[in-house]
Specification:
Blueprint (H helix, E strand, L loop, with lengths): L21 H11 L11 E7 L4 E7 L1 H7 L3 H9 L16 H8 L2 H9 L17 H9 L7 H16 L16 H7 L5 H23 L10 H4 L6 H9 L4 H25 L1
Antiparallel strand pairs: 1-2
Helix pairs in contact: 2-3, 2-4, 4-5, 4-6, 6-7, 9-12
InterPro entries: Ankyrin_rpt, Ankyrin_rpt-contain_sf
Pfam families: Ank_2
Length: 275
């Protein structure tokens, strides 16, 4: 059991930002159809409205998943402080889980928050049907990009990029090193989506190469330490500049390089097999 009227002090748990006001949170729970006397991590059957509120269907979700779908980060933080889990429930009947739905809805801010509060382990998890992952949920809608606005497609692709750079395609045993698992890549990146991700990876590498060329210049005899002379003799200045302008490096760079290499090979194989 839980009670939103007995919230833990916000200082006791790091919620990662502002949380919802207690009275407002209670009202939001009631408006959504939740029973406040039920365990906070238990699924409940609540109404979901479509077609501008005229069509109602019933859905089983946890409070956390419900407010993830709505994109209500303050409410998610509030539930977290009150004991709600950010990870996928272990019971088989749970069709959806927070990170999957955050990715599917294109809520990158909530994806990042969930990841930092326990959902890192769910970045490759499958849904109840065994055929949907957070990354794949963003790509399925991209196939029908012509039906959505450019802004919506861009938002979804940003989530895809973030998921990839945070281990969605990496080997479980080598997640921190950024080693891509080709089996996972083939599973989650559909054939028709691969050219788009290859283009992204190649663009990132091109931007990085242009950045390095700009820093080193053409009159330094290509000595790799020469940039220290031009940047105040501080070894960290290049890294700081790179981070500021969004240049991939470190683990992200390893992932991008592998992605470009593997996708180039797969796309070529697909083209040869279709001829």
């Amino acid at each position: 059991m839980f009670s939103l009227t007995k919230r833990k002090p916000s200082s006791a748990i790091d919620a990662g930002g502002a949380i919802e006001d207690t009275d407002i949170a209670i009202q939001k729970m009631k408006d959504s159809g939740f029973d406040l006397g039920t365990d906070i991590n238990q699924e409940q059957r609540i109404p979901r409205f479509a077609d501008g509120g005229t069509t109602r269907h019933w859905e089983r979700v946890t409070p956390m998943t419900n407010f993830v779908i709505k994109g209500d980060l303050k409410m998610c933080r509030y539930l977290f402080v009150n004991g709600a889990k950010c990870t996928r429930p272990t019971l088989a009947r749970y069709k959806n889980f927070p990170l999957l739905m955050a990715a599917k809805e294109g809520h990158i801010d909530i994806c990042k928050w969930l990841y930092m509060h326990g959902a890192k382990e769910d970045i490759q998890k499958l849904d109840l049907m065994g055929d949907g992952t957070p990354l794949r949920s963003t790509i399925l809608t991209q196939r029908c990009f012509y039906a959505y606005t450019r802004e919506y497609v861009k938002k979804k692709f940003s989530v895809s990029q973030w998921l990839i750079l945070n281990g969605a395609l990496c080997c479980q045993d080598y997640n921190d090193s950024g080693q891509i698992d080709e089996v996972v890549l083939k599973r989650d990146l559909s054939i028709d989506s691969r050219p788009m991700f290859l283009s992204w990876a190649q663009d990132e590498l091109k931007i990085r190469n242009n950045f390095l060329f700009f820093l080193y210049g053409t009159s330094t005899n290509q000595h790799k330490q020469q940039h220290l002379f031009f940047n105040g003799n501080k070894s960290g200045i290049m890294e700081n500049i790179a981070d500021y302008v969004g240049i991939v490096r470190g683990r992200d760079l390893r992932i991008i390089r592998q992605l470009a290499s593997i996708l180039s090979t797969l796309i070529q194989e697909d083209e040869e097999s279709s001829n």
